[in-house]
Structure formats: C-alpha cells, structure tokens
Specification:
single chain; about 325 residues; alpha/beta; Rossmann fold; 2 domains; 7-stranded mixed sheet; 9 helices; about 30% helix
Length: about 325
C-alpha cells in the first residue's frame, strides 16, 4: 500500500566515519518495528551494511535505502558512508533527500566529515537536525559538542533533547520541547536543562513575530503554538534541532523519530524542482503531484548477482507502473 505524498519523509543520514550512522539507521528501523531485533556493526548483522566488504571492514562503503512506518508516516532513510572517498554515494543520496540527520560522535565532536556534510545540506537548502550519538561512551562530552556545533553551524542550533548523565552514568534523555522527563535531571544539570528549555522556547518564538509578541507579553506559549512554530522554523532552516542519545541502546531514538515524522518536510513542503521540457527545451517547475506527468531521477544503481540490475529513483511527479515505458531525457 502506497503512502500519500503528505505522509512521506525522505531522510538522509550523514556524518564523519565511525560516528554511528548505521547504528542510528538500525535503531530507527527497530523503533519503527520494521525489524524485530536491532543488529550491530561489530556483529556484522545490520540491515544497511550487508555487503561482504562492509561486514569485514565494519564500515559503510555504499549508500543503502531503508524504510519504516511510524504514526501513519512512511519514512525512507538513506544511510551513507562517512569517508570522503565515497562522496559520490553522498551526492547521489542528497538528490533524493528532503531532510537530513547529521550524526556527531559525542567523544570526538565535530570532525572534517561532519563539517563538510553539514555545509553540503545547507548549500542545497535541505533542512536537517543534528544527533549527538554515543553519549554512553567514555569521554562523551555534550557541552563540548554543543559549543562546537554552535560555532560551526550558528546560534540557531537549538537543543531539543538533553542527556541525563554521560558515559557510565548515562540514563537517557529529556525532551526539552515537551518538557517530558525534566524532573529526572538533578544538580547543575537540572539548571542547565531548564535554561536550554527556556532558550528553545525563545528561539521558536523568535521565528514568528506574532508569537514573539505574545511570548513577551505573557511569558509562555501553548504546546500547540510551540509545536506549529517549531515545525515551520525547521522547514525554513531558521532552526536546526540538536538531539542526543546512544543509538546502540536506542536511547534518544524515539525523540528523533518523532522529530522526523512531526517536523521534517514531506515532498509537498519542498520547493518544486526545475526540469527541462523534452519538447520545448525550456525549464519548467515539476510539482509533486501523484496525478501529474511522470518525472523521476535515478540516484543509485545496484548490480546484484542474483537479482540483476536494480535502479533506485526519486519520483518527483506522477506514478510508475510495472508495464510503463520511460523516456530517459539525459
């Protein structure tokens, strides 16, 4: 059963090598109940790293496409390699993505790949969030990561989940948007979490003049007002949400999935793409309409020894049936 266009999210996972992108993808599949048990990279049994070379090297070499359904929304996930050597896989994936998840290693912080891939999404106008992964590892430093993130990507990076502890004491995350679990944070962390929660509300309010005026007058906003303005700010790129967690244990993944389905754009929220009309040779806007003329772009081809050549494409308009004839304009 195909999903309505408004209920589709096309998301790419990017990040420096060994930041845990594949583990994030695996955790999303498990959270969406697509798989019954989450695999791991060391065990070589993840869904996306299925190639023999990837299993042996314990790293992604090819991009892979995953999908899950959550709250009636179909989420297509493109898991990509982290090494710059495989940049072609990333460029292809970005052609199909409407939003992105930039994974940061909580121990290493912002690395070369993190910086480059974030700039690539900004250049293409793709809204994205940042997921600080591996908060359960020794020397994980949330504050250092946030400082580097704000320096690299701007002050519009707003923390929406706050970690409860770190390394051996890591117990999960607090949702600063809904304030769920805020009472579980103790000591100095409690003060910082409350400060970040207030800062998030202010950042959301600042994205809408009418909302900002109301916030300054009353000092608070309703949850629905915050939710609506938050999504609008994410879609326009005015706000870059920052989450934290540990993909291998599934911590913080529920909040990430809620963000994807609740705030990330559907194809309808993205600008129309420009295409060349094969008859008039003029540039035209291709609107994402299921009943429109068929238009798609191949972003990956796989040569499988058993199934033959598999072509993966992003459909921009219309629909595709098994007996259709397609004209390749390029």
């Amino acid at each position: 059963m195909s999903a309505e266009t408004k209920n589709i999210r096309n998301v790419i996972i990017l990040g420096h090598s060994h930041s845990g992108k594949t583990s994030v993808g695996e955790a999303l599949l498990f959270a969406g109940k697509t798989i019954q048990k989450a695999g791991s990279v060391p065990a070589g049994n993840t869904v996306s790293d299925y190639n023999d070379d990837e299993i042996e090297r314990k790293m992604s070499i090819n991009s892979s496409v995953l999908n899950l359904t959550h709250n009636g929304t179909k989420v297509n996930v493109i898991d990509t390699p982290g090494f710059i050597d495989f940049i072609g896989e990333i460029i292809g994936g970005l052609r199909a993505a409407d939003a992105g998840i930039l994974v940061v290693n909580a121990v290493s912080g912002i690395e070369m790949g993190t910086d480059k891939f974030g700039k690539m999404m900004k250049k293409k106008g793709i809204p994205f969030c940042i997921f600080i992964n591996r908060m359960d590892k020794e020397n994980a430093d949330f504050d250092k990561c946030m400082e580097q993130i704000n320096k690299k990507f701007g002050k519009n990076c707003a923390c929406i989940t706050y970690p409860i502890g770190s390394a051996a004491t890591f117990k999960g995350v607090v949702n600063l948007l809904t304030k769920e679990g805020l009472d579980k944070v103790e000591g100095d962390d409690s003060e910082e979490a409350k400060m970040l929660s207030e800062s998030l509300t202010e950042s959301v309010a600042e994205s809408d003049d009418a909302l900002l005026e109301k916030y300054l007058e009353k000092g608070e906003l309703s949850s629905e007002e915050i939710k609506s303005a938050f999504r609008k700010a994410v879609l326009t790129g005015e706000l870059i949400p920052v989450l934290s967690g540990a993909a291998t244990s599934g911590s913080g993944i529920k909040e990430l999935l809620e963000l994807i389905t609740g705030a990330f754009p559907s194809p309808l929220d993205r600008p129309a793409i420009k295409a060349l009309d094969p008859n008039t040779k003029e540039k035209v806007d291709v609107e994402p309409k299921s009943d429109g003329p068929f238009a798609a772009q191949v972003f990956k081809t796989i040569a499988d020894p058993y199934l033959g050549q598999i072509t993966i494409m992003k459909i921009f308009s219309g629909s595709l049936s098994s007996n259709a004839s397609i004209y390749n304009v390029s």
